[in-house]
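U., I forgot to send this yesterday:
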Amino acid sequence: DAENVLKLAQEVDKEEVMDAKQKVASKGLLKDIVQEIEEAKKRREKEIKEEMLMEQKAAKDRESAIEREERHKAELLKQHRDRLQALDAAAQESAKVILAKSQEKETIISKRQSNLLKRQADQEERNKKYLKQIEVETKTTLDK
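Result:
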């Protein structure tokens, strides 16, 4: 019996040793697994931070591009407005010149018409005098 008890004790000891070894191995594996999980978690956090930074940079880049585009559009609009103002000023100046020339032509035409009317009046007056002179001469000639 003592031998059986000894064998049994050795077997129990072997099982306990095996269980203990498995537990130690399991704890070691658990530590490794926990460590891997922690490292994976840290890597993922780092990746997320990097992604956030990249997204922030991309957002800033987009915002800068939009601002540049808006400034460019504003500059084009200003240039277009300036051109329109210059064209308007040129058109107004041209209209003034045309109006001045038109008024000048009207003045010349009016003077010419006035001179023509005066000449016609003078001619009519001369014609009247000439007709009177002819009448007088005719009367004088008839009286003789």
